[in-house]
Amino acid sequence: MRSKVTVVGAGNVGSVVANEIALGGYADVVMVDIVEGMPQGKALDMLQAGPIDGYDVTITGSNGYEETAGSDVVVITSGAARKPGMSRDDLLKINMGIVRQVTEAVVAASPDAVLIVVVNPLDAMCHVAYEAAGLPKERVIGMAGVLDSARFRTFVAMELGVAASDVQALVLGGHGDTMVPLPRYTTVAGIPITELMSEERIKELSERTANGGAEIVSLLKSGSAYYAPGAAAAQMVEAIIHDRDRVLPCSVLLEGEYGINGLFVGVPVKLGAGGIKQIYELSLTDEEQAMLNHSADAVRGLVEAMETLK
């Protein structure tokens, strides 16, 4: 019997997540959205691609949660994007409500599921989902570090003219401009990038990574990134469904690790069946720890802001 994955939100990111899972052929997919006809239409379109791409999973579109019952993993992509004239608090309040409502609905239908949150501001929304779900912390995870690390890997590969698959990178911290790329842990086929490019150039690529989402938004003029975020979430789903024990950077609830307590922050974890199996606590330099603390403070500011909006 195949595993079952629910993707809440049939917009650009949710559609890519569903399509990546279908292409992998390892789980049936249910897409849920409040817009009537949209998840059903996209699901049917993906089903019709199956004979061409060689997959035969079931893809279902729905405007409710009955079809999601018994899901192994739920990916939450539903949320509003920040619009001109909208304050941070406006976006927080809107997405708080959406994520809380969605989480309660999916957990009622699938109490044993692992939740992956892909809604901005991401680390703050993980807090909302965690409180609403009432699940163990191992089963509420934010997708950020996989995407941020992929962006860093891409920029390093472009700079050096090497295969991106040979680049390994690690990005810690909150998902935003305070994220912490770690050049010491970034390599090309095992060679530290500190041996391959100047400190100044590494700093420039790190800054480009931190602003990777904003760069795409500025180019698109309307909308934001969705191919890479969707692929990143699907990679996490695959690690859980297949119990791969992948070591990936994810936003998880820290309880003393890295000197941070009670906040969702991106760190390297072992990801497999049941969600987070282990949190890896790296030895950071004083500068790296200071940057991580600064990033955690930014997340804390959002969490405190949400308290005033409840």
Please explain how this structure is put together.
With 310 residues, the chain is an alpha/beta fold. It has 2 domains: 3-142, Rossmann fold (3-Layer(aba) Sandwich); 145-309, Lactate dehydrogenase/glycoside hydrolase, family 4, C-terminal (L-2-Hydroxyisocaproate Dehydrogenase, Chain A, domain 2), CATH 3.90.110. It is built from 9 helices and 14 strands. It has helices at 12-24, 38-53, 88-109, 122-133, 145-160, 199-210, 212-220, 227-241, 286-309, and strands spanning 3-8, 27-32, 59-62, 73-76, 114-117, 140-142, 167-168, 171-172, 180-181, 187-188, 191-192, 246-255, 261-272, 275-279. The strands form 4 sheets. Strands 3-2-1-4-5-6 form a 6-stranded parallel sheet, sandwiched between helices. Strands 7-10-11 form a 3-stranded antiparallel sheet, with helices on one face. Strands 12-13-14 form a 3-stranded antiparallel sheet. A hairpin with a 2-residue loop joins strand 13 and strand 14. The longest helix has 24 residues, at 286-309. The radius of gyration is 19 Å and the shape is globular. It starts with a strand and ends with a helix. The mean pLDDT is 95.
Proportion of residues in extended strands: 15-25%
- Highest-level CATH class of the largest domain: Alpha Beta
* End-to-end Cα distance: 42 Å
Average pLDDT: 95
Main pleated-sheet profile: 6 strands, parallel
Side-by-side strand order of the widest sheet = 3-2-1-4-5-6
Element string (H = helix, E = strand): EHEHEEHEHEHEEEEEHHHEEEH
Radius of gyration: 19 Å
Number of strands: 14
Shape: globular
| CATH architecture classification name of the largest domain | Alpha-Beta Complex
CATH T-level fold name of the largest domain: L-2-Hydroxyisocaproate Dehydrogenase, Chain A, domain 2
Number of helical stretches of at least 4 residues: 9
How would you classify the helix and strand content by structural class? Answer: alpha/beta
Helix share, percent: 40-55%
Count of folded domains:
2
The CATH superfamily of the largest domain bears the name: Lactate dehydrogenase/glycoside hydrolase, family 4, C-terminal
- Which spans have pLDDT < 50 for at least 5 consecutive residues? none
